[in-house]
TrEMBL record:
<dbReference type="InterPro" id="IPR030669">
    <property type="entry name" value="MoSto_subunit_alpha/beta"/>
</dbReference>
<feature type="domain" description="Aspartate/glutamate/uridylate kinase">
    <location>
        <begin position="37"/>
        <end position="221"/>
    </location>
</feature>
<keyword id="KW-0418">Kinase</keyword>
<dbReference type="GO" id="GO:0016301">
    <property type="term" value="F:kinase activity"/>
</dbReference>
<dbReference type="InterPro" id="IPR036393">
    <property type="entry name" value="AceGlu_kinase-like_sf"/>
</dbReference>
<dbReference type="Pfam" id="PF00696">
    <property type="entry name" value="AA_kinase"/>
</dbReference>
<dbReference type="GO" id="GO:0030151">
    <property type="term" value="F:molybdenum ion binding"/>
</dbReference>
<dbReference type="GO" id="GO:0005737">
    <property type="term" value="C:cytoplasm"/>
</dbReference>
<keyword id="KW-0808">Transferase</keyword>
<dbReference type="InterPro" id="IPR001048">
    <property type="entry name" value="Asp/Glu/Uridylate_kinase"/>
</dbReference>
<protein>
    <submittedName>
        <fullName>Uridylate kinase</fullName>
    </submittedName>
</protein>
Length: 268
């Protein structure tokens, strides 16, 4: 048998799975591609599905803010995602196929948001275009992309059930992490994270600030964001918190970008 051929490198002969090797590279700084970027995720179910009365004022606020702040707008899916999931689950579609189907909805919302923001330089981009963000920002553009991560047919099997675990909240966090963004803000239709669903229990308490590990340990039945986001915060290198705000209340996004502690902050 011929010996394995190797190129001279510090990883020569390594399997790339050895724990000691992993620890050797732990803590090394990563290049931050867009360190002043603010990733703002616009919920599909919580914002876009409400139509012009909610979306237009928010779009105008985003447009004005884009004159001062560097932003990437990420869109969610919404009620149409629920509809296609309902059909797909009944038909027994594999999780990867469900992920492929639902991604089309957030793409449609990205197109609409880009058109709404066109007067402010709004430009629809794809996930493969993230490395172009520094150039686009220097050109005065306001990039808009869909939030579904590009796992597609290769989506991870969920711990429970069949619904794809990596959806648009997760996609926004992953985009923020890979470009080394300054902030990741999730714009929803509630004031933040509650102890229970506030639409079901009016006595639910608003949680203003909480570490990701503590939130996971609470094992809450329902969350305002995808649980995968909270899990990933335990491992992110660049993004150290996710902020949840109410997009139905004008001015809250402005306050969040100013660094104010509005809504809920989940800390890594």
């Amino acid at each position: 048998m011929s010996p394995r051929r190797e190129m001279e490198s510090k990883l020569k002969g390594e399997s790339l799975v050895r724990h000691g090797l992993m620890r050797r590279y732990e803590g090394r700084p990563q290049l931050r591609i867009a360190p002043e970027l603010n990733v703002v995720k616009i919920g599909g179910h919580g914002i876009i599905d409400y139509g012009a009365d909610v979306v237009r004022p928010l779009a105008d606020e985003i447009g004005e803010l884009s004159k001062t702040y560097k932003m990437l707008i990420v869109t969610g899916g919404g009620v149409r995602v629920r509809h296609i999931l309902d059909l797909g689950l009944d038909l027994g579609m594999p999780t990867g196929v469900l992920a492929e189907l639902t991604s089309k909805i957030s793409e449609q919302n990205a197109i609409m948001m880009a058109v709404l923001l066109s007067q402010y330089g709004g430009m629809r981009i794809h996930t493969a275009d993230l490395l172009d963000i520094p150039m686009l920002l220097r050109m005065g553009m306001l990039p808009v992309t869909h939030g579904t991560p590009p796992y597609g047919l290769y989506e991870y099997p969920p711990d429970i059930g069949m619904i794809p675990p990596h959806r648009t909240d997760t996609g926004a966090l992953l985009a923020a992490e890979v470009v080394g963004a300054k902030r990741c803000i999730l714009v929803k239709n509630v004031d933040g994270l509650y102890t229970e669903n506030p639409f079901v229990n009016s006595d639910a308490e608003l949680i203003r600030d909480i570490p990701a590990r503590e939130l996971l340990d609470m094992q809450m039945e329902d969350l305002v964001l995808e649980e995968k986001v909270v899990e990933l915060l335990l491992h992110t290198r660049n993004v150290k918190q996710v902020q949840i705000i109410n997009g139905h209340k004008p001015g809250l996004l402005t306050a969040a970008l100013h660094g104010e502690n509005v809504g809920t902050i989940i800390r890594a």
